[in-house]
Amino acid sequence: MSLRSFLKLVEIQTKVASVIPFLLGTFYARYRFNDFKAYHFFLMLISLLCIDMATTAINNYFDYKNANRKYGYGYERHNAIVRDNLKESTVLAVIFTLFAVAVVSGFLLFLNTNVVVLILGGISFLVGIFYTFGPVPISRTPLGEIFSGLFMGLVIPFISIYIHIFDDEILSLDFSGTILHFRFDIPEILYMILLSLPSVAGIANIMLANNICDMEDDLENKRYTLPIYIGKDRALALFRLLYYIGYMALMVLLALRVLPLVSALTLLTFFIVRKNIKAFYEKQTKKDTFVLAVRNFVIMNMVLALTLLLGVII
Question: How far apart are the C-alpha atoms of 113 and 109, rounded to whole Å?
Answer without folding.
Answer: 6
